[in-house]
């Protein structure tokens, strides 16, 4: 499979490739129950298919990176926001930041929705790309 296969509208992934790409995107839902195992599943799918299918490798690597950014990075950012809010609430200013911290706490709920969208698109054989992450991952395959 050439590097053009990922961007070409001619290439149609096999049923098996669609299934694995769909599972990679749906792995984000595992985080709702375990908190952290979703990226592990996406990584396992990536490692198992990186030499077999560029389509599955690309889709699973995107799913992995989205989860790392949103769940791990977002979680750390939310924790920092709550610590700062707590510390500043000692001097009243932080009370104004509580709504902002609550809003940030909803950020990880965006990832499962985005993952389901990716799963639906890849189950239909489309070449799904996450915003920002998809182009970066694609450059690792074509650059």
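Sequence proposed for the structure above (143 residues):
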């Amino acid at each position: 499979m050439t590097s053009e296969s990922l961007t070409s509208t001619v290439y149609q992934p096999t049923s098996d490739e669609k299934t694995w790409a769909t599972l990679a995107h749906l792995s984000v839902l595992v985080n709702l129950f375990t908190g952290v195992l979703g990226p592990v599943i996406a990584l396992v799918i990536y490692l198992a298919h990186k030499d077999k299918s560029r389509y599955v490798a690309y889709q699973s690597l995107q799913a992995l990176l989205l989860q790392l950014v949103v769940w791990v990075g977002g979680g750390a950012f939310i924790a920092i926001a709550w610590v700062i809010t707590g510390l500043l609430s000692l001097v009243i200013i932080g009370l104004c930041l509580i709504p902002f911290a609550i809003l940030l706490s909803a950020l990880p709920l965006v990832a499962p929705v985005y993952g389901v969208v990716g799963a639906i698109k890849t189950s239909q054989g489309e070449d799904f790309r996450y915003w920002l992450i998809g182009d970066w991952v694609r450059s690792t395959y074509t650059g």
